[in-house]
Amino acid sequence: MAAKSTPTDPLSRLPALADSSTDTHVIIDTPKGSRNKYKFDDEHGIFKLSGVLPAGAVFPFDFGFVPSTMGGDGDPLDVLVLMDEPAFAGCVIEARLIGVIEAEQTEDGETARNDRLIAVAATARNHQDVVSLDQLSENLLKEIEHFFVSYNEIKGKRFRPLGRHGPERAAELIEEGIKLFRGRRKAQRGKKTG
Q: Do the Cβ atoms of 133 and 165 come closer than 8 Å?
């Protein structure tokens, strides 16, 4: 078996924080309104279809990930981005964190943290004044949580929301995710030289 190559495509090298450092980069993998779920394959630098939601179910907002981060599940941190119009798979967006839905996800008897960061596109017009999760309606937040619960249930997983927090906690999770990512990269480099 060939050794996994180091990603060289620009998306795999993109930093988590935007130049402004108050915004974060988000790579959209699944646009708002899509039944198709895409996933970025960092080994090959491409987006792959990873599943299809049942008829009537669609992503409520653009969904993506923060590059150069790692969450409790070993994947980059997930982000739901409020924007005026859907983006496309591979679109890089600078976004302002407004909060997080902290959650656990159980698959095949294994439980791991799988939080959902919530952000607003830096250039959004409809949501330009939203700076915190508590500015969104309770009904919208319940619908977002329900989407992730039902989406995971369809895939044979259990998604359990643990709590909602504001932008400060979301920023802490980004910092933790950057540290975990750097630690993993350092360990991978150590294996190559060892």
A: yes
Answer whether 128's CB lies under 8 Å from 120's CB.
yes
What tens digit of pLDDT does each residue of 170-189 get? Answer: 999 999 999 999 988 788 77
Burial string for 49-87 (b: 16+ CB within 10 Å, else e) reads eeeebeeeeebbbbbbbbbbbbbbbeebbbbbbbbeeeb
This prediction's pTM: 0.89
Q: Are 191 and 4 in contact (CB under 8 A)?
A: no
Asked if residues 150 and 60 have their Cβ atoms less than 8 Å apart, the reply is: no
CATH superfamily of 14-193: Inorganic pyrophosphatase (3.90.80.10)
The letter for the amino acid at 110 is E
What sign does the CA torsion over 157, 43, 190, 177 have? negative
Domain ranges of the chain: 14-193
Residue holding tokens 């952000």? 119
Q: Is the pLDDT of residue 8 over 80?
A: no
Q: Are strands 158-165 and 92-107 parallel, antiparallel or unpaired?
A: antiparallel
